């Protein structure tokens, strides 16, 4: 895939604020604590990518298929057609995360599941939940090398990470290896929560990239980019 991976939709500015889309062959790391909005950002990216004719594989440690569909429709991201026509492959791995014996060799199993990596974009939300029981520095290198090979044939890999689930060494390896690195910040205000995407690194952007993008989530609307991000 040689074209830019746009996730433009008419109702928000998220794609424009993030350089007009992801360059082909990008590895994207989105880092944040529990409740920071990693899944919501992943869902928004998924919907936008599908609307712009990318094929997406979404591997989730967070929701069942039914839960994912219900969540997407609650924020008006209609995905039934994409699931039915095969442009979206949704893989819930909650049972695997909970099953003790699957934890040790999970990285090897993930890399050998070729059908998961056939689409244009692969989103793993959250990679840290999947690998926290089986990861060490050597296995992290193997996994990052595997993702880089996929990048080499134009695929975009989007990984969400909860840093508390991994050692600092392993988290640093993902940060330094990726092309695009964002952190999600949450700040309680008087009567609401301010959420911000902080763009730490963005290699190969097609257009200007906002350094801080404030956002909120509204029922029946989805992700709304705030006019002025609060640092």
TrEMBL record:
SUPFAM superfamilies linked: P-loop containing nucleoside triphosphate hydrolases
**InterPro entries xref list:** AAA+_ATPase (IPR003593), KaiC-like_dom (IPR014774), P-loop_NTPase (IPR027417)
Keywords from the named record: ATP-binding, Nucleotide-binding
Where in the numbering of this chain does the AAA+ ATPase domain appear? Answer: 24-187
Q: Which Pfam families match?
A: ATPase
One GO molecular-function annotation for this sequence? ATP binding
Say which domain of life the source belongs to: Archaea
Annotated NCBIfam families: PRK08533.1
- Name this polypeptide is given: AAA ATPase
């Amino acid at each position: 895939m040689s074209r830019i991976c746009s996730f433009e939709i008419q109702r928000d500015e998220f794609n424009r604020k993030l350089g007009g889309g992801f360059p082909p062959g990008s590895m994207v790391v989105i880092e944040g604590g529990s409740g920071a909005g990693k899944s919501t950002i992943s869902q928004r990216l998924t919907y936008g990518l599908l609307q712009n004719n990318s094929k997406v594989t979404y591997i989730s440690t967070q929701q069942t298929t039914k839960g994912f569909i219900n969540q997407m429709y609650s924020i008006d991201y209609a995905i039934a057609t994409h699931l039915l026509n095969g442009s979206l492959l949704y893989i819930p791995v909650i049972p695997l995360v909970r099953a003790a014996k699957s934890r040790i060799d999970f990285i090897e199993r993930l890399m050998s599941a070729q059908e998961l990596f056939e689409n244009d974009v692969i989103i793993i939300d959250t990679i840290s939940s999947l690998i926290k029981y089986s990861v060490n520095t050597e296995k992290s290198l193997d996994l990052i090398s595997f993702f880089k090979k996929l990048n080499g044939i134009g695929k975009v890999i989007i990984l969400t990470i909860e840093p508390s689930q991994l050692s600092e060494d392993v988290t640093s390896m993902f940060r330094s290896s990726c092309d695009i690195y964002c952190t999600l910040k949450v700040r309680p205000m008087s009567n609401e929560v301010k959420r911000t995407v902080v763009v730490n690194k963005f290699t190969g952007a097609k257009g200007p990239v906002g350094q801080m993008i404030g956002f909120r989530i509204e029922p029946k609307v989805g992700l709304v980019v705030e006019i002025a991000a609060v640092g």
